[in-house]
From TrEMBL:
Matching InterPro entries: AAA+_ATPase, ABC_transporter-like_ATP-bd, ABC_transporter-like_CS, P-loop_NTPase
Protein name per its UniProtKB record: Multidrug ABC transporter ATP-binding protein
Stretches assigned to coiled coil: none
SUPFAM superfamilies xrefs: P-loop containing nucleoside triphosphate hydrolases
Entry keyword annotation includes Cell membrane: no
Keywords: ATP-binding, Nucleotide-binding
ABC transporter domain location: 6-229
GO molecular function: ATP binding; ATP hydrolysis activity
Length: 261
């Protein structure tokens, strides 16, 4: 059994004549929160769609838990939360989750479990259209959690939420990771970087840094993750390679970093 949750080798994705991701190599371990950070249009969603197996790939491979991304055997092992809440507004929270549980083949008892885990007990019988943005996001997360997947791919789950609601969701993410799940969480909110175990920073379809929160700050000498990211993206390619590879040489075995591709 592979020790990695996600692996990509030579991943290339094109949209028309534009190369969105070019020959990307990536390895993500099990049981961690991995933050996928970068500005809008950097390729985060495209990469996540490839990992889930719903993105057309030009060349290269993506595997999840040792299986090709999108394989039928992964249907119950990978949960996916899209940017927009994927729920039916004319159904209650519980009805939504019962419907998704039937589709996924999850046991009926799982509905109550995910309602409890996402703190939706007070809204369980409330129509989805009456929910706040944060509550709707939690319903989408609960749906992704049905069946206790090994990997959760969450595309900007905290976008548009206030700090309190964002904190609530990140507490849920941490509990899931502590129980052994692997979470890939995309965001353009840089202060969320410090809540991750590992960070992937993307720009223009390339991973320009693969590191940990502490290494990111130490390597760049920045006080905040946002400042560190801004410093990285302003380096020219040669300087980025020298600076970003210094951490992996000094501290082997930790998150590695690499320059812009």
């Amino acid at each position: 059994m592979t020790s990695n949750a996600i692996e990509a080798r030579g991943l290339t994705i094109r949209r028309g004549r534009t190369t969105v991701i070019d020959s990307l190599d990536l390895t993500l371990p099990r049981g961690a929160i991995v933050g996928l950070l970068g500005p809008s249009g950097s390729g985060k969603t495209t990469l996540m769609r490839a990992i889930v197996g719903v993105q057309v790939v030009k060349s290269g491979t993506v595997s999840v838990m040792g299986q090709p991304a999108g394989a039928a055997s992964l249907r119950h092992r990978v949960g996916y939360m899209t940017q927009l809440a994927s729920i039916y507004e004319d159904l209650s929270v519980r009805q939504n989750l019962r419907y998704f549980a039937r589709i996924q083949g999850a046991p009926k008892s799982d509905v109550d479990r995910v309602i409890d885990r996402t703190d939706l007990g007070g809204q369980a019988d409330q129509l989805a259209r009456t929910l706040s943005g944060g509550q709707a996001n939690r319903v989408s997360l609960a749906a992704a959690m049905l069946g206790s997947p090994d990997v959760l791919v969450l595309d900007e789950p905290t976008v548009g939420l206030d700090p309190v609601l964002r904190s609530d969701l990140w507490n849920i993410f941490r509990r899931l990771a502590d129980e052994g799940s692997t979470l890939l969480v995309s965001s353009h909110v840089m202060d969320e970087a410090t809540l991750c175990d590992r960070l992937l920073l993307m720009r223009e379809g390339a991973v320009i840094a693969d590191t940990t929160p502490s290494e990111l700050l130490e390597t760049t000498g920045a006080a905040t993750a946002e400042d560190a990211f801004l410093r990285i993206i302003t380096y020219d390619s040669a300087a980025a390679r020298r600076i970003l590879t210094s951490t992996s040489k000094a501290a082997p075995g930790k998150g590695r970093t690499r320059g812009a591709q």
